[in-house]
Structures are given as structure tokens and as C-alpha cells.
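Example with several molecule types.
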Amino acid sequence: MSKAGRLVVLVSGSGTNLQALLDASADPSYGVRVVAVGADREGIEGLVRATKAGVPTFVEKLGNYPTRADWDRAIAAKIASYEPDLVVSAGFMKILGAPTLDAFPVLNTHPALLPSFPGAHGVRDALAHGVKVTGCTVMLADEGIDTGPIVAQEAVPVLPDDDEETLHERIKTVERRLLVEIVGRMAREGWTVSGRHVRIGNQSEGEST
Ligand code: GRF
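Resulting C-alpha cells for the full complex:
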């Protein structure tokens, strides 16, 4: 069974999910330490949040490498240097390659109920489709776009006057709470993966969470 005490969090933007993890990890009983924050671009609020919390940061820009494979190797090596038990891709807008995915479990969060509306515009696509309920998904990453085994999901109703921004903000409130809960449980209880099925702790099939 895997456990997740040391976390590297990857961000590309505002980093409110990162902030929720940083806030939760201030309590030692949460069982998680954010040991580094990585990004694929400079000048983002997520990096500022990390620095304010005294957490080391690194930036690996795809454009600084001759090929995607070179970037994949570089970011994997950087992540490895912090010896994480778990990598959390929290609004990180790049697909990680085999060098990272083969070395570490990677948890990802997505603002839609997968397998509906994968990709960079999950909120916009759900709105355009006219769904009445959407939500968020926490899953383990694989090499596909939002295709990995699902760890947890929570529904969020779509309101008649929602636009992409209002709906995304409501989803993010739920997403942050769910991510914090799941990361903490993975750290404290461990988890196993069997095919597409992820189980946290020793919880038996059918037992409620
Ligand atoms: C989250 O909704 C995440 O699922 C999506 O982008 C948002 C990131 O928000 N991919 P933040 O940077 O954590 O505030």
C-alpha cells in the first residue's frame, strides 16, 4: 500500500488548491508536508503562495528544452530531487510524461465529472452542453488527458444564470475541500490501485466513506 507524507505540488496559475493544501498541512495531524512547488511558467500567484509559506519552488518551462522528452526528463529529475511520496498536479496545465508517471504516483484534479468534459475547458464544455449537474474529480494521472483512475468526485449544480467564471468558482470551493480531504486520507491511510479502482485505506467494497 502506498502512503503520501511528502508532497510536491505542481501549479500553473492562481494556486488556490495549493493554498488549501498548504493551510491544511500547517496542522501536523494532517500528515502531509508540501516539500516543493513546481511550475511550468514564471510570474504566477501559485509560486508566490509557496514562497510566502517558506516552501522551495522550481520552474521548468517547456520552451527551454529542445524536445518534449527533454522537458519530461528534466521535470522528473527536479521532482525526484525532493523525494516526494506523491505529486499533486493542482491546476498544472501540462500532461506529465513517463519519466514522472513511472517514478511517482501523481494525483490530479479536474473541474468536471469525468469521464465527461476532460481537457483544458471542462467548465466551459459542461456549460455549453447544457448539463444541470457538473462537479469535480480527483484522479490518479496516467498519460492520457484526464483519463486516470478516479479517486473521488463531488457534484455541483449548474445554476440558470451561471457563466464559466461563476460556475468554476463554485466548483473550486468544492474541489479544494475534496482535494484536501483525499490527500490527507491518502497520507494517513495509504491507498491501493486495482485496474481502474482506487481504494483508500482498508475500506472494504461497499463500505461508506
Ligand atoms: C482548478 O479548477 C483545476 O481543476 C483546474 O484549474 C483550476 C486551478 O485553480 N485545472 P487554482 O490554480 O488551484 O486556483
